[in-house]
Amino acid sequence: MALINTLMRLKEDGAIKRFDMIEDQKARVYFQNNKSLVIYMSGDYILGITSIREAIQDEPRPDYIVYNDWDRVTENAEEEARKIRIPVVKYGRFRHIINELL
Amino acid sequence: MVIDQGLAAVVAAIVAAVVAVISLVVSIRTEKERVYLESRLNLLLGIEQERRNLFYAQLSDFYDPVFSLLSVNRNIFNRVGPNSAARYNNSFPEDETAEVWNKLVQQVITPNNLKICEIIQTKLHLLAPGDAVEPYMEFITHAYAYHVFREKTYEAYKLFQFPQSFFEHVETKRDGLRQHLEKVLQPGNQQPRRIKHGSN
Question: ipTM of the predicted structure?
Answer without folding.
Answer: 0.74
